[in-house]
Amino acid sequence: MDDTAPSNTEVSAEVGALVAAQQELLLRSDSDPEQIAARLRQVYEELTTLRMHYQFGIDEVQTKVNILRQEFELIHEYSPIEHVRSRLKSTESLIEKAVRTGGEMSIPAIRERVTDIAGIRITCSFVSDVYWIADMLSRHQDLEVLTVKDYIAAPKPNGYRSLHLIVQVPVFLSQHTEMVPVELQLRTIAMDFWASTEHKLSYKYHKNLPARLQDELDDAARVAADLDLRMERLRADIRPMPEQTSPDSGAPHSP
Length: 255
Hints:
7 helices; Beta Polymerase, domain 2
C-alpha cells in the first residue's frame, strides 16, 4: 500500500462522512422523498450490476483455469495447478477502496481506478509452473493481458512474492458484451503460505507489526524463497517441462 494513503481509520471516517451527508439530505425539510428513494435505488442497482459483471468475469476466467487443470489431470497425469481460489470485493470494501484511492465516486470512475474488484489466485508447486500457467492463459485469444507485475523476479520490500496479471475477458450478456478486468495472482505453495501468514499478522496489528514479528517474517520470506529454489532443482525429476512448441499449435510451451 502507498505510504501516503490514508489509514483505515481515516477511510472509515470518510465513508462515515458520506453516509452522514446522505442522512442530512434525507432529514432536510425541502428534500423530495421520491427523488431520494429513486437515487438510492439507482446506486444500489449500479453497484449490484457492477459486482454481477465482475462475478461473471471471474466465472469466465475460472472456467479457463479449470479446463487447463482437468486436461492435465486426465490426460497428462500431472497438473501444474495445485489450488484455485476466487474473490469478489464486497460492496463495503469496494466503497472503502474507492474513497481511499480518491477521485470521482461514479461507477465508471471506480472501475477505472480499482483494478482488483475481481480476483483469482492460482497456487502451483514450482516457480516454473507459475510462469508456465501464465503463459498458457495469455495465449487465449479472448483473454487480453493488460498489465503484468512480477513480484517473484522483484519481490516487494516486505518479502512478498507473486506474479500478478490483470487480464480482460469478454462477458457476453443479453444485450451487449462487457469487457471485465480480472486480477490473477499466481504463486507457489511456499509464497502463498508466507503471504497468508503476513496478511493475518498485518490485519491483527493494523499493519504496525512489532519489530520481533517483522524480523521473523523477513527471515521466513528468505526461507520460502530458498525452498522454492531448492524445489525447482528437483522439478525435472518429478515431471520435465514439455518441449517448446509453436504458439500456433495451441499447445503449452515452457517460459
